[in-house]
Structure formats: structure tokens, C-alpha cells
């Protein structure tokens, strides 16, 4: 173990702008996959995870104490202790369009765009439904990622597979 993560794992960084909702959910789900280590970050982190993201994770059996909103600068090339990343996945369109730092390991990049549940207004039930739908979409995508033979794939094969996963339709709380 180096810096708290297993060197043999496929390391995935999940990015968005605020690092408070989608990325936190994605970090939990991808990090729970055997053979994967997940991190999350944002270009302009909110500073704390969205309370509903933490609630959804806790309700789905995840330990939530270690999740925090952090800057992508922590993962940049040359940053002491930064992990070597194998894949970087953006989950919001604005982060996908930003110029990212250089990452340790020259990872494969893909976009898994999803609506921001933190932007939903209305009743607590409406907000919870948005977070549940995002959790379900990311859970389905993480399952597809976990089924890939990532260690045996070329960078081009992994790129194509991650892009295909990002194109999965998510309609009415169900992944098609």
C-alpha cells in the first residue's frame, strides 16, 4: 500500500466542478468494486459533500465518514503523494470542457455526463428522487466498469469501453 491505496488496483478519478454530489456518489460506487480504487475531485470544490449525497450513500450501506470535497489540484502531476491514475471520468459537462491538470500516469479520459441532483429544487422528496436516480445511474455504470477486464485492455480499448458506458441512457430512474 502506498498513500492508503493498493498499487495493483485500477485507480479512477471522478471529476466535476463542485465535487459535492455526483462525484462523491461515483467515488463510493467505483471504489466498492473489487480491483478498483476511486477518488473524486472538483475544479471548484464546494468544500463539503452535499448532505443528500451522504444520506443516499448511508442508506445504501456505505460508510460515509471519509468523503470530502476536494480540489483536483491534489491529484496533479508532480504533487507529492498523488496517486498514479489509470482513468479519469468527468460527470458534468462543465468539468469535461475545462482544461484539466496533467495527471500522474497519463490516464484514459472519458465523460459520463449526468444531470446535477444538487441543482434540483423543490421538496425534500424531489431532491431525494434526483439523488436516488443519479445513484442508480452511477451504480449501473460502475457495474459495467467492474465487469471490464481493465488489466488486459489497451488504452484505446479502455477508452472505447468507458465512452460506451458514458453513453448509457438513464430514463425515469432506470438505466436502459
Spell out the key features of this protein:
176 residues; alpha/beta; Rossmann fold; 4-stranded parallel beta sheet; two-stranded antiparallel ribbon; 6 strands; disordered N terminus
* 3D shape: globular
Overall strand count = 6
Give the name of the CATH architecture: 3-Layer(aba) Sandwich
Instruction: Specify the biggest β-sheet.
Output: 4 strands, parallel
Verbal overview:
The protein is 34% helix and 15% strand. By secondary structure, it is of the alpha/beta class. It is globular. The protein has one domain: Rossmann fold (3-Layer(aba) Sandwich), CATH 3.40.50. Residues 1-7 and 171-176 have low confidence and may be disordered. The strands form two sheets. A four-stranded parallel beta sheet has the order 2-1-3-4. The longest helix is centred in the last third of the chain and has 23 residues, at 124-146.
